[in-house]
Automatic annotation (TrEMBL):
Belongs to the VPS35 family. It is found in: Membrane. The lineage of its organism: Eukaryota, Viridiplantae, Chlorophyta, core chlorophytes, Chlorophyceae. It is a peripheral membrane protein. This is Vacuolar protein sorting-associated protein 35. Its main location: membrane. One of its GO terms (cellular component) is late endosome. Transmembrane segments: none annotated. Keywords: Membrane, Protein transport, Transport. PANTHER family: VACUOLAR PROTEIN SORTING-ASSOCIATED PROTEIN 35, VACUOLAR SORTING PROTEIN 35. Coiled coil: none annotated.
Length: 837
């Protein structure tokens, strides 16, 4: 053919060879992919042939003659290809009207009914005629050549015929090759969609023409073809190909077609695409957003989803949820201020999934995505107002439900959000119920690892600090509700969460106390002290019994208990005092004390509360009760000796910071501390604790209430003398055991000397140089003796440092201290030197 064109310039031979070349397209042996490669090779040669036809016209041969000449080709397929090639040139030359030639060609192409050959033939027609349509503003418009309606009619006619051929491919061949045919069809789908693309690009296509002519015919063809692959692709072509403004006006038509689609069509993907396009369109123009609101677009999408679900009763759960995900994204982007829409989506999703997820992992992931959207689109506080949220969460597997609950808590904690409503806190605990108690279908707390429980409950404990209200009474009501909910979790959970509740309650005590100091009109300390005993039962009437049951993991809780607890707290809101709150905290500490492995945490809470009762609330009787409970817990609940030593030191240290106690109460507490110190197992521990007890009789001045510090030098001296006796007993034990190298008792002497020095430096009565000097000499002699027996030890190095420190005090002394320190005779010292000792 090329030789006939380039060398011989022979039209007849060129037509003969071109027909033979085009005859190769008649094959049925090639796959669509290979046929496409052959088609592209032929297409390239047809370009050369069209150029040859143009040269023939320049030689005087008309296109009408050529148009008739090519119709003599023997086979229909080559004939139609040649007619399309010459026909397009015919239109371009304006020798013929575009309307007539295009109509003639689109009708003649019906002569090829083989699906693959017909699709490529009509694709060639569509492609070559693209710039020749009588579109508005086109040079081929008017003068009998047609108008925009003719252009639209041509493309629609070609589209309809191509779609029929495309669908027919599905029904050819053996049933076992169905999957292969579907793959081949998907490879050819762009040939069909090209018509719709050219339609959307017509300059003369306006909304009226689209709504009145284009869309009805396209939708009719899509629905009537009853083919899932075609419907899926063509609906996406409509949504993605035509302008958003057209979709806005024809929304009812598009949504009305969805229930009529085949069951295998992924309607959720179609709706998602449509909603995403409209949402982006609305974001770019406020007027569009207003129009969507006026036309009730959300309601239309919601109702359409309902109709689709009714029509496709066998739709997979994942596909159902994905439609609601799209709807949730749509309402969050277009109508963010209407939170009720979110609740409606969740309610509709729950109704659609009434039968459950049936173990569908994909559906569960989609449901998590749906439930996550409100947390990202809105703040968490707004999300807590969604009554349908926890109901829908109940459809998740326990593990997934727990992961989503953790996400909710992280969203609150990481953003610093404060939950300040009792109702929303109650809703929050419904959201995170798998984390705080055993739920149906999930593992029991007894079957969980300690590490897993700790990780979850530490997160819940962090959440408790986000439950806050400026009004102390409401804050207390929130904590009361939290306590009632947490007690359902059993001992292994509350051991991590109750401390957070306790320290939050202490914050309220400090706020109430600060307000009392700032406003004399508030209740006096005496009123608080008199009122705490009567107020507490009403605040948490049922909690004590419930707490005890929870500790023994025999809780039979119902939601009514939590409601009663909060109601009681709210009823006493106007009467809340620091004393009443501390009484509530005391009950909380008693519950925690009964939890296995948590006596030390309960002790710390009791001491912190006792300090707050003393220095913040100024309620002596209640402060005494906290310390009394602390001693009881020390005696009955702590058995490990190391913990007992730590606990006793904590009690003594906290008691030393309390200034509220009168002499009687303070003496009782100090005597208890001293008695327990003397009963410790190790002599060294006894000595340390007794030395610390000496500070219970000598306090620094209070910054809050001057003049109330305890100053009893006789008792201080008595404690230190008792410590010396204990150190002597420790020395005797070493001597009896014949442990020559053991100098540990010397460190006890040095520690006692340091306490003597502490009081000496503060000019405490009876602590004079004559009292301190014998102690220094005794330690020096013991150190020298140990040096001769065992050589240099840690005790000797400690003594060198102590002597150096005393020497520095002596050098820096001013005023009366100069005289006091000058009376001390110190041994020579050089740290680390044997000779210095």
């Amino acid at each position: 053919m090329r030789k006939s064109i380039e060398e011989d310039d022979n039209l007849r031979e060129a037509l003969r060879y071109s027909a033979a070349m085009l005859g190769e397209l008649r094959t049925s042996l090639l796959s669509p992919q290979k046929y496409y490669e052959l088609y592209m090779m032929v297409f390239d040669q047809l370009v050369n042939l069209e150029a040859f036809f143009s040269e023939e016209r320049n030689k005087g041969r008309s296109f009408s003659e050529l148009y008739e000449l090519v119709q003599h080709a023997g086979n229909v397929l080559p004939r139609l290809y040649l007619m399309v090639a010459v026909g397009c040139l015919y239109i371009r030359s304006k020798e013929a009207k575009a309307k007539e030639i295009l109509k003639d060609l689109v009708e003649l192409c019906k002569g090829v009914q083989h699906p693959t050959r017909g699709l490529f033939l009509r694709s060639y027609l569509c492609q070559r005629s693209k710039g020749l349509l009588p579109d508005t503003g086109s040079p081929y418009e008017g003068n009998g050549g047609g108008d925009i309606h003719d252009a639209v009619d041509f493309l629609l006619s070609n589209f309809i015929e191509m779609n029929k051929l495309w669908v027919r491919m599905q029904h050819q061949g053996n049933a076992r090759d169905k999957e292969k045919r579907e793959q081949e069809r998907q490879q050819l789908q762009d040939l069909v969609g090209k018509n719709l693309t050219y339609l959307s690009q017509l300059d003369g296509l306006d909304y009226e023409l689209y709504a009145g002519m284009v869309l009805p015919r396209v939708i009719e063809q899509v629905v009537s073809c009853k083919d899932g692959i075609a419907q899926q692709y063509l609906m996406q072509c409509i949504i993605q190909g035509f302008p958003d403004a057209f979709h806005l006006g024809t929304l009812d038509v598009l949504l009305g077609a969805l229930p009529e689609l085949q069951p295998e069509v992924k309607v959720h993907a179609i709706m998602s695409s449509l909603m995403d396009r409209l949402a982006k369109y609305a974001e770019s123009d406020a007027a569009v957003m207003q129009r969507l609101l006026e036309m009730k677009a959300f309601e239309k999408f919601r109702d359409s989803i309902g109709r689709v679900l009714n029509a496709q009763t066998d739709m997979a759960a994942a596909d159902k949820v994905e439609m609601f995900v799209a709807l949730m994204n749509f309402t969050g982007s277009v109508l963010p201020n209407i939170v009720d829409n979110v609740n409606q989506v969740l309610a509709a999703a729950h109704a659609a999934l009434a039968t459950g997820l049936s173990g569908d992992i994909k559906a569960e992931k989609q449901l998590v995505a749906l439930l996550t959207i409100p947390l990202t689109k809105y703040d968490v506080v707004t999300g807590l107002g969604l009554t349908e949220y926890p109901i829908l969460m109940g459809l998740l597997r326990h593990r997934t439900h727990k992961e989503l609950a953790s996400k909710i808590i992280h969203a609150i904690v990481d953003s610093g959000t404060r939950i300040h409503s009792v109702e929303k806190v109650a809703m929050l605990f419904r959201f995170i119920s798998p984390l705080i108690k055993d739920v149906e279908g999930g593992p029991r707390v007894d079957d969980m690892d300690d590490e897993d429980i700790e990780e979850e409950q530490v997160l819940v404990a962090r959440l408790i600090h986000s439950l806050f209200h400026e009004d102390p009474a409401i804050h207390h009501a929130i904590l009361s509700l939290a306590k009632s909910e947490l007690m359902h979790g059993g001992a292994r959970r509350v051991r991590h969460t109750l401390p957070a509740l306790g320290f939050c309650a202490l914050q309220i005590v400090r706020r109430i106390s600060s307000a009392s100091k700032a406003s004399p009109s508030l209740r006096s300390n005496a009123e608080c002290e008199a009122g705490f005993g009567a107020a507490s039962p009403d605040i948490n009437a049922e909690t004590t019994e419930t707490d005890a049951e929870a500790v023994n993991i025999e809780v039979k809780a119902v939601d009514a208990e939590a409601e009663a607890d909060v109601t009681a707290a709210a009823a006493n809101a106007s009467e809340l005092t620091a004393g009443a709150l501390l009484q509530w905290l005391l009950e909380l500490c008693n519950v925690l004390a009964e939890v296995p492995r948590e006596p030390m945490m309960a002790l710390r809470m009791l001491l912190a509360a006792g300090l707050a009762a003393s220095e913040e609330a100024r309620v002596e009787l209640l402060a005494y009760q906290f310390f009394e409970e602390a001693f009881t817990l020390y005696e009955e609940g702590i058995s490990d000796q190391r913990n007992r030593v730590t606990a006793l030191h904590s009690i003594i240290g906290t008691l030393n910071r309390c200034y509220i106690f009168g002499s009687e109460n303070r003496d009782a507490l100090a005597q208890n501390a001293a008695a327990y110190s003397s009963r410790l197992l190790k002599r060294s521990d006894q000595c340390h604790s007794v030395c610390e007890c000496s500070h219970l009789s000598w306090q620094d001045d209070s910054t809050e209430v001057p003049g109330v510090a305890v100053r009893d030098s006789a008792r201080v001296m008595s404690c230190l003398k008792r410590a010396l006796k204990i150190a002597n007993s420790a020395k005797q034990q070493v001597t009896v055991a014949a442990r020559a190298g053991d100098c540990s008792y010397i460190t006890l002497y040095i520690e006692i000397l340091e306490h003597y020095l502490f009081y000496f430096d503060r000019s405490v009565e009876n602590f004079t140089a004559s009292v301190l000097q014998p102690v220094i000499d005794m330690v020096q002699s013991e150190v020298m003796l140990s040096l001769t027996k065992a050589g240099e030890s840690e005790a000797q190095r400690l003594w060198s440092k102590t002597l150096e420190y005393i020497h520095q005090l002596k050098v820096k002394a001013t005023g009366d201290k100069v005289v006091r320190y000058s009376a001390l005779q110190l041994p020579s010292f050089q740290q680390g030197s044997k000779a210095s000792l």
